[in-house]
Write a structure and sequence with these properties.
The protein has 11 helices and 13 strands. The protein is of the alpha/beta class and 299 residues long. The chain has 3 domains: 85 residues, Arc Repressor Mutant, subunit A (Orthogonal Bundle), CATH 1.10.10; 101 residues, D-Maltodextrin-Binding Protein, domain 2; 102 residues, Periplasmic binding protein-like II (D-Maltodextrin-Binding Protein, domain 2), CATH 3.40.190.10. It starts with a helix and ends with a helix.
Length: 299
């Protein structure tokens, strides 16, 4: 008995035909017929009842086929596991991330690179929907984004996970009178010029605020975090973002930018820092290992 023989009888059971089984397995009809006959001789009973209409498993054959299915499935799992580790000897890991402080992932990145120095690590910074599109188009292996229920609902074909709770805050200059406050409401926010990171989740939030409270004064949006930092520091405008992302402005610890809690309207869904991956198949082995390291670091 060997794996090829098990593959042939399983395919025969699936198709109900030795001829179709041979076609699907890319072998001759004689090879399939001999495999079935050989196993029947070894077992001492018939696996199939053959007729001009096809091949139907016997009662004994059905029990053998159940075992054969399980063996082939386990073999495939073993093969996939081995191929996954083989991929760690070469290949790449493509991570797309929203602007967040590198401290959230740097230990995981360093440890991954130490463990697998031969893996080419590519990290790009993008907006949320751009990252989701990269995942859909297989341009990234894993995306690090801020996840909320609406995103999960809109992209049901993908798999999302949450790592760390987050909240929206407003960044203001130390020179601003707002710097003395602890929080600000969306209605009060309307009084101040805004500069935003170019991300659809922030645009959606502003649209919700405008619908409920009236027009917001948006000066401009950009994906250049240093530009936003400079404009806010000079007290030209204020900005809105997720609390975790503000630590990426390096001068914040020295007090140039102050963050205020943004008082969200009742019923507004909270967001979390998390990840997105293709929903149709498992993560690649490198991506899976990196995610485990990231969970360990954050958890």
């Amino acid at each position: 008995m060997n794996l090829e023989q098990l593959e042939y009888i399983v395919e025969t059971a699936k198709t109900g035909s030795l001829t179709k089984a041979a076609q699907n397995c890319n072998v001759t009809l004689s090879a399939v017929s001999q495999a079935v006959s050989s196993l029947e001789a070894e077992f001492g009973f018939s696996l199939f009842t053959r007729s001009r209409l096809g091949a139907v498993p016997t009662a004994e054959g059905q029990r053998i086929l159940q075992k054969a299915y399980a063996i082939l499935e386990q073999f495939q799992e073993l093969k996939s596991e081995a191929e996954g580790y083989s991929n760690l000897l070469s290949g790449s890991l493509r991570i797309a991330t929203v602007p967040v402080p590198l401290t959230l992932s740097i230990d995981a990145i360093i440890q991954f690179k130490k463990d697998f120095p031969q893996i080419k690590l590519e990290i790009t910074e993008k907006a949320t929907l751009d990252i989701i599109e990269d995942i859909k188009q297989n341009h990234a292996d894993i995306g690090l984004i801020f996840v909320d229920d609406s995103i999960i609902h809109q992209h049901r074909g993908l798999h999302f996970g949450k790592l760390l709770e987050s909240k929206f805050v407003v960044g203001v200059s130390r020179q601003s009178p707002l710097a003395m406050r602890q929080s600000i409401t969306p209605e009060e926010l309307r009084k101040y010029p805004l500069v935003l990171y170019k991300d659809d989740s922030l645009f959606k939030l502003m649209d919700e605020f405008e619908e409920q409270y009236g027009k917001m004064e948006l000066l401009f949006s950009t994906n250049q975090t240093r530009v936003i930092q400079k404009v806010v520091e000079e007290n030209v405008a204020v900005t809105v973002g997720v609390d975790l992302s503000f630590s990426s402005f390096t001068p914040i610890p020295s007090g140039n930018i102050v963050t205020l809690e943004l008082e969200m309207p009742p019923g507004h869904a909270a967001s979390s820092f998390g990840w997105v991956q293709p929903g149709t198949h498992h993560l690649s082995k490198p991506a899976s290992i990196f995610l485990d390291k990231l969970k360990h670091q954050i958890g």
